[in-house]
Amino acid sequence: xxxxxxxxxxxxxxxxxxxxxxxxxxxxxxxxxxxxxxxxxxxxxxxxxxxxxxxxxxxxxxxxxxxxxxxxxxxxxxxxxxxxxxxxxxxxxxxxxxxxxxxxxxxxxxxxxxxxxxxxxxxxxxxxxxxxxxxxxxxxxxxxxxxxxxxxxxxxxxxxxxxxxxxxxxxxxxxxxxxxxxxxxxxxxxxxxxxxxxxxxxxxxxxxxxxxxxxxxxxxxxxxxxxxxxxxxxxxxxxxxxxxxxxxx
Length: 249
Ligand SMILES: N[C@@H](CCC(=O)N[C@@H](CS)C(=O)NCC(=O)O)C(=O)O
Description:
By secondary structure, the protein is of the alpha+beta class. Helices cover 59% and strands 7% of the residues.
């Protein structure tokens, strides 16, 4: 189907993160949104975004003409409505409901276990998020690192997951990965033979949970589930072929 609106719209700019931790984006939510833009075949450009500049004080956010939209779910809504795309085309109401439930499990539960592992385990913090501050002047760098880490600890506590021990958090996160592995089974994509929106989220969260630079119970657990790893690698090849090829080399 032709989309005449496409010619008249100004290009979307996706404000997000940057390649890091052996992944195309440090942020799984930015990865999700970029994959959904690719699935929708909508032209876009990428720019470095900072949470403080976004309407929800988080990344990703998009800017299109004079509109700024924050939060990956609302970004998806926008692109589907504005460009006449349905990323869940062909899915039954039951499948759409399952997709929503899977997304919530991954974004509102597994994500926080990933955040815990990256930010709260000392060696992971040193190998990963600590470097976000490397370009700051030396006089303020350490203070900025400490403040950011304390804020993340507070957010984890506010969410609730951060009240548990490291072992308990790993256990809970692995339960989400186990559920995902069971739901995926031997299918190519979560809802069957064709990709749909939930695959963008699942790909992003599995990729984040298995990022090579971190010491991670989630990564070890996922790597023992070949269907999750095959799925992650297939989506990486589908949407980031150059990146997948570099990783394989
Ligand atoms: N519900 C949001 C979550 C986005 C999110 O948590 N982004 C993180 C990066 S992965 C962020 O911007 N964190 C900065 C902060 O919380 O200050 C979405 O779906 O876009």
